[in-house]
Every structure is written in C-alpha cells, then in structure tokens.
Amino acid sequence: MLRGRRVFLSLVATVALAVAMPGGASAFHDWNGYHWARTANPFTIKLGDNVSGLWDSMLATASSDWSQSTAGNPVRTTVVVGNTSPKSCRPTTGRVEVCSANYRNSGWLGLAQIWVTGGEHIVKGVVKNNDYYFGNSSYAYNNTAEMQHVICQEIGHTLGLGHTSEDGSSQNTCMDYYHNTSGSDTTSTHPNTHDYEELASIYSHLDSTTTIGSSAASGRSSSGDASSWGRQVAGSRASGESVYELRLSRSERVITFVIWAN
C-alpha cells in the first residue's frame, strides 16, 4: 500500500490494505493467491466511478495502466458508472467500486477492500481515496503524484497484488512504498513490467466458474475504524504496519492489513 492505511476485507476472507510506510521487501508480490475466478483470459474487471474532481482523470489513467497487455498481463479494466454513494462506498458483487470522499482524520490515505470466498476467489472490491488529506494543504500527501500513486496501488490490490517493497525506496511502480512529496515527482505512479508479470502468473490458470460481472449491490464496506477490524495478529502502529483478523464464522473471516501514516 501507500502511506496511510489500506484495507482489504474479505467476506469469506475479506481483506484490507492501506497506504504505506517502509517495512520489508519481496521479490514476488501476489497477495496470498487471491484472484478473480474466471473461465477465460483476458478478462475485464469493471471499476465503478464514484469519484470526483482530479480523481476522475486519475481513475482513467489507472484503469488504462492496469489494462496493458505487457508481459502477458491478462487483466483488463474498464471504468463504468458507479453503483454506490462515495461516502458509504458499498461493494457491488462482481466488480470494484472506486470512491473518493472526506473520510476524516482516519490515518489512511487510501483503502482497498476485497471480499474473498473459497479461500482465494475475489468476489467484489472497494477502493476509497481520502480527501481529508488530499484536500488539505497542510499535509505533504496533498499532491497529484501521490494521488495517482494511491489510486493506482489500491486498484492493484483489488486485482490480487501485494507490495513490491516496503522499505520506502522506489522500484518505479505504484505497488511500492515510495512517498511522493510533490506533484512534479512522478516516480512510482504507474505499474511496471514486474507488476504485469506477476498478474500473468496469478492468472495463469483458469477456473471452472466466474466471480466477475454481476452488478448487484451487496454488503457494507469497512468503516476504516480499527475497532471493527477484530484482533491484531501482527505488527503494531508504532512499527508502521498492523494486521487484524475478524472471524465472522467458521468459513468467513475479515483480515485487515493496515499501514499507518506518520
């Protein structure tokens, strides 16, 4: 994620990620094998447009970025009319709702959620971009490059990608923990070839069913409040990252991966 919290919740493993600070590094960055079930490649994920202002053009850029066929990437995304209100940002089965609103001084810049069933299949997703920080000139985060970094990374998480690095350095991909402090610093604002290679690997197999394509609104998104995330199973706020788990039933759990802002 980027700097702040990014959260991936899963309904049969609802998972959350947030915006990032330095941590460790990884050569591979799939996220626990989470992926959309589908019967053919390439496939298209709909991104519901519930954003406004500068976010509209940034959503279009991120969608185009993640749709490149580079390195055999089978993922295509398309921006469609949103199916929720930006503030509530409720998920829609079979697609990703992308939202922007003032989500208060919550500690996270962007938040991504995926609902997972069968242990690994994503069935719906949500991305939230927090205008509390991006609309406030007193924060270093308030610049167009960091905005593009956030929305690109959060969408990448809903496709099944984790981080390429967590040490704060730039691998010139939006999936790293680099922090853009000015609009002229466009480092790490787009995917790189390794991201496309990882997506090709994640989606190298086909499934017998599909979780893509429904348009039925369903469920609630996370409030972004730690009190709703269950027990902490790793990390700490002081270290800059935390993981939480909330078990809903024997077959359902919510995992929240948070990276805290300074």
Brief account:
It is built from four helices and eleven strands. By secondary structure, it is an alpha/beta fold.
Properties at a glance:
disordered N terminus, Collagenase (Catalytic Domain), 3-stranded antiparallel beta sheet, globular, alpha/beta, 262 residues, single chain, 8-stranded mixed beta sheet
Would you kindly provide a written description of the structure presented here, covering whatever features stand out?
By secondary structure, the protein is α/β, with parallel strands linked by helices. It has a single domain (9-259), classed as Collagenase (Catalytic Domain) (3-Layer(aba) Sandwich), CATH 3.40.390.10. 16% of the residues lie in helices and 26% in strands. Strands 1, 2, 3, 4, 5, 6, 7 and 8 form an eight-stranded mixed sheet that branches. α1 (54-66) packs across α3. The two termini are 14 Å apart. Residues 2-16 and 18-27 have low confidence and may be disordered.
Query: Over all CA atoms, what is the radius of gyration?
Result: 16 Å
Q: CATH top level?
A: Alpha Beta
CATH architecture annotation name: 3-Layer(aba) Sandwich
- What average pLDDT do the residues reach? 81
Low-confidence stretches: 2-16, 18-27
Structural class: alpha/beta
- Which quaternary structure do these chains form? single chain
State the CATH superfamily name. Collagenase (Catalytic Domain)
Task: Sketch the topology as an H/E string, one letter per element.
Answer: EEEEHEEEEHHHEEE
Helix content class: 10-25%
- Give the termini separation: 14 Å
Number of domains: 1
Classify the fold: give the CATH topology: Collagenase (Catalytic Domain)
Tell the overall outline: globular
Q: How many helices?
A: 4
Q: Major β-sheet, in short?
A: 8 strands, mixed
Fraction in beta strands: 25-35%
Count of DSSP strands? 11
